[in-house]
Write the structure tokens for this entry.
Amino acid sequence: MGRHAHRLDGIGSTIFAEMSALAVRTGAVNLGQGFPDEDGPAAVIDAAVAALRSGRNQYPPGHGTPELLDAVIAHQQRHYGLDLVREQVVATTGATEALAGALLGLVEPGDEVVVLEPYYDSYVAMIQIAGGIRKPVTLRAPDFRLDLEELAAAITPRTRLILLNSPHNPTGTVLNRSELEGVAALAIEHDLLVVSDEVYEHLTFGVEHVPVATLPGMFERTVTISSAGKSFSVTGWKIGWASGPADLVAAVEGAKNWLTYVSGGPLQPAVAVALDEHDGFHQQLARDLAVKRDRLSSGLAAAGLTPYRPDGTYFVTTDVSATGYPDGRAFCLDLPARVGVVAIPSQVFYDDQDAGRHLVRWAFCKRTEVIDEAVDRLSAADW
Ligand code: PMP
Ligand code: GLN
């Protein structure tokens, strides 16, 4: 190790930023990084402007602005029947900071963290920064379901928590009630905490999203995380929240105090407006995304890339082995120059390279004409 080696060596940079930069450089259609190319509700943006204009420009309370805390409480009650009080919610800088706070606040060095693989990239970094040890449980193509026996086998006396993500990025799996009951039984048997990343909670296609915290015995051991980015197409606002029992939320907030202290003062009341008044936005978004999922999936299939149909999120995965590339990374690095499209190699989200090597993720949270342009370009490819 050189003089400047440090404990973050090996974490790497974010694949999403890398691939978006590649898209800009090459003029390719960007189906890589997951961000919508249309704005969230105009009334919500107006609420942010009004907050900026009405002097809400200084530090908000560390816990979150009262409107946002109350809106999250009302949201959890309305959608899931969960009863929370303000001490059981903390506002964060996106779900990313809620995840960071949960892992830093709840994982001791040497603790094992069981995590679904493929995993969202910030999990890897934050488990490492917290000094934890990642124990992946693999979701495998073509169905990407959770194998409860594999989950049970991943748990050891050193396991501290299970990090769930449903709806799951990148596979689009939405954990069903029986999978979640299996997780709950193991968490209770081994007295584990659960951190549940539910940022795609409203982006499901005909299947129900069940928060694990609603299962018997689970609220008291679960930190539930979400954010406004996906539900309201404002990924750049970075307003998120964690909720759960007050002691676990205090652990998240304890870490958050030293990460950012507070976040997005004028955006928090606007997100409260979104949560309180704009369920219709994400309901319509989910309907539109289901159509776009099918449109992109048909195009990918026609281009010889078999799609695995997602039940949620805005991503579809394909196997690219038929193209002759050795792996998804080589495929994705060539794709902008060869076809004019950017996608994400899912193998970077796997420890188990056999399971992930040939998988590539495509985002369909784009205008129909953008999806059609990508499909046209792909259909011209001669692999
Ligand atoms: N978790 C998952 C699974 C995600 O896909 C994202 C999207 N970026 C995040 C967390 C981060 O959300 P945010 O932008 O609110 O920090
Ligand atoms: N969540 C988005 C994705 O999975 C992007 C997040 C990011 O760029 N860090 O594409």
Q: What stands out?
A: The domain at 42-278 is CATH 3.40.640.10 (Aspartate Aminotransferase; domain 2). The longest strand covers residues 159-165. The longest helix spans residues 279-302. Residues 14, 16, 33-34, 169 surround glutamine (ligand 2) (CB under 6 Å).
